[in-house]
Request: fold
Amino acid sequence: MKYIIVGLGNFGSSLGEKLTALGHEVIGIDNSMTKVDLYKEKLSHTIRIDAMDEITVSGLPLRDTDVVVIAIGENQGANIMATALFKNLQAKRLISRAINPLHQRVLEAIGVDEIVHPEEETAERWAKKLCMTNVVDSFELSEDFSIVEVKVPEELVGKRIGEIEFRNKFNLLVLTTIKRTEVKALLGKKRQEDTVQGVAGPNVLLEEGDIVVIFGAKRDLRRFTNE
Reply:
């Protein structure tokens, strides 16, 4: 996959390095030449760009980019303006960093796809979310095992957990399911609200929009999510 990371501070650079190490193409951009030079050997590409300059940003390969992450943290104004610009340029999937609740509400009003809070979430956790198809969140238990939240793939909608044979086919254990519903938020926007459904049994029916919480070895989780 191809990523653009805007802002090569601690979070942006760490995320870029982990994604690059996983074999993905990462373009890291920053307005500091020092940071661009510092990470040019660690990321696929680094470019010195003012992320608030529409003409310059429009020259980036956005059509070929799967995910844009606005990782600017020290300047909320720059973060918001860059986010709005990439949104206007129709980035396929736009993720932006929020510093506080007010900042998050502004980003929600702009209409970003996801919001990241680096003070609470690690770059490693986000790298995993971005690399595994349909992964909503993850929790690392050890070097080899994780718990992940995965959106129910289209081909599994309408099936019961027992039919899918997670244990036999994928060597995975389904812990629970989560129902995701939309509720009205500020500024007329909608936000998603999650409700945990309890311990998952074989007769639980998977519906569109559901999330399954799965435990297993990382290699098995990658195989399941990428299939």
User: Anything to note?
Assistant: The first strand starts at residue 2 and ends at 6. Residues 76-88 form the longest helix (13 residues). The domain at 133-226 is CATH 3.30.70.1450 (Alpha-Beta Plaits).
